[in-house]
Amino acid sequence: MPFAQTALNFETVLALLPWVPAGQVLDLGTGAGHWAKALADYGFEVTALDNDSEKIAVLKRQQPGINWVAADIRAEIWSADLQSRQHQYAALLCLNLFPFLPKPEHLTQLIRIKAALKPGGVLIFSGFSDQDPGADRYMAYSQTGEPMPTGTLSLEELKQIFAGWEPWLEY
Question: Which residue in 90, 16, 12, 97 sits closest to 52, CA to CA?
C-alpha cells in the first residue's frame, strides 16, 4: 500500500483491519478501551494494557472477553512479559501513548514494540510528530515521577527503528 497523507481516525483504523493477519492484537495505552472493543468485535483475540487500574477493572466487568491488563508499559513485569512474547502479536495499536512518555524513554519502548510484532504484523501508531507546534512544551512523568518534556517523534526516527517495514499510511 503506498504512502498516504491522512488523519488517523476510527474509520481509518477500521478500514485497515482486513489486512491485519489473523492472530493476537495488543492495544497499548487502551484508555477507554474503544479500540480494544472494536478489535474484539472484529474477531481478534485482544490484550489491552493501560496503567489506570480503576479503568481496567471497569472494562474487565464490561467486556470480559478481552484480556485487560493494568500496567505501565515501562513496568519491569510488563517489559519482561513483552520480551517473552517476541513476535507474538499480529497487530499492535499504540495510539497517543507516547505523548505521556518522556522523550528519553521513547527508543526503548519502540524497540520493545517492534520485537513484539510477528513478521508481517501491523503496527498502528500515533503520537506527537515534529509537525505538532508546541509539542515540546508538554510534560510527561518518568517512572520516578520526575516531570520531563515528552518531545516529539519524527517520521525519520520511526523509519530508522522500523527500517525494512512497509508503511501503509503516514501523516
Answer: 97
Cell numbers at residue 125, please?
A: 501508531
Q: CA 70, CA 50: separation in Å to the nearest integer?
A: 5
pLDDT in tens, 59-101: 999 999 999 999 888 876 566 666 666 668 899 888 878 777 7
Measure the CA–CA gap between 15 and 28, rounded to whole angstroms.
Answer: 20
At position 13, the amino acid (one-letter code) is V
Query: Which grid cell sits at 109?
Result: 519502548
Band of residue 46 on the pLDDT scale cut at 50, 70, 90: very high
